[in-house]
Amino acid sequence: MDEEHVVELPHSLEDALITVLPPTAYYIPDFITPAEEAFLLDKVNSVPLPRWTHLTHRRLQTWPSTLSTANTLLAAPLPAWLTEPIFQRFRDIGVFAGSPHGAPNHCLVNEYMPGQGIMPHEDGAAYYPVVATVSLGSPTVLDIYGKREVGEVEKRPRYRVLQERRSLLVTSGEMYKDFLHGIKEVLVDEGLREEGIANWTLLGDREEFAGGKFKRSTRVSLTFRDVLKVKSLGAGLRFLEKR
User: Fold this and answer.
1) In what helix (H) or strand (E) does residue 139 lie, and over which residues does it extend?
2) Stretch 198-226: mean pLDDT, rounded?
């Protein structure tokens, strides 16, 4: 328990609505405490090395496992260090209230070193259209683009969302289905002011960004989703026994 910091959640997600964006996105600063952030970072960094998948511009962990080629998840619980107290807070404000399983069953842990990012992309049809991302270690700017022809990306983002460390960003509905999101490969995020940041009025500490820019440090994101198709290991074994 972090006795010096108490998480104060909004009464509902609607109190955290980013009104500048198309429906629907929500932003909650200080969703976890500094002590909880430190605990999560320690857990992320203490997993066995084979748990990490190394990509060109970042590395990641997939919990409980990667999806099959048919976008199916093998049923398994997420580790306790990823679920509590985060899942209880999801329940308190109804983040996944409408999803098939009532809670996330999948989490991607992405690590971004300064200067690393991710190309504009969408989460896709394998998941219930709600994604909840908790940011650890460093702020970053998420760029949001409109969809164009297949393979084409708009040159400039339509919107920018500033994700503070320890914050929660939830996207759903039109924002989930009709837009792409990405993170630029820069060392310094600039242009940070009310007219350029969609969630500026919802930030926990606007003074930190009063100079209009910040230098990135290592950031870890926890991206929680509910995979629609889930297969139990027992069902697979029963199929094999019948052959």
Assistant:
1) none
2) 97
